[in-house]
Amino acid sequence: MAGKILAVVETEDGRVRESAYELMSFARKMADGNGGTVCAAVLGIDPAAAAAEVAGRGADLAFAVSDPALANYTCDAYVAALKKLVADKEVEFVLFSHAPLGWDAAPRLAAVHGLPALTEVVDVETGSGVWTRLMFNGKLQVKMKLAGSPLVA
Length: 153
Hints:
single chain, alpha/beta, 5-stranded parallel β-sheet, 3-stranded antiparallel β-sheet
């Protein structure tokens, strides 16, 4: 399960949302358990400052994806940019926070491009690739293992 782990960083008005740092901690746990690399992706019209901020707070690599089409969030533009980034950088895992960007873009990225996906992930057993996710409003925890790469969670 080693490889590049891409944390998709959500921003608001150019500032990194706090949920991004929780996501980066989760990515770090995965990377440390398997010898992987934590990467962060910040998308927008001018994401360089936000990318530099996350690079200084846990990411091994930070990618600032700048495009006029990303000035205002649209699912199609973000998914297209992420698809290209994932292919270009040979990413094995794409992680999203359980926040508006993740609710919208993660399932779209997986569905449009035929990628395996899990939502509401709260843990992963490093080494075995067994993921724990919540179901029924957190009343159940389910352990799952998916095949395929890149995996969207």
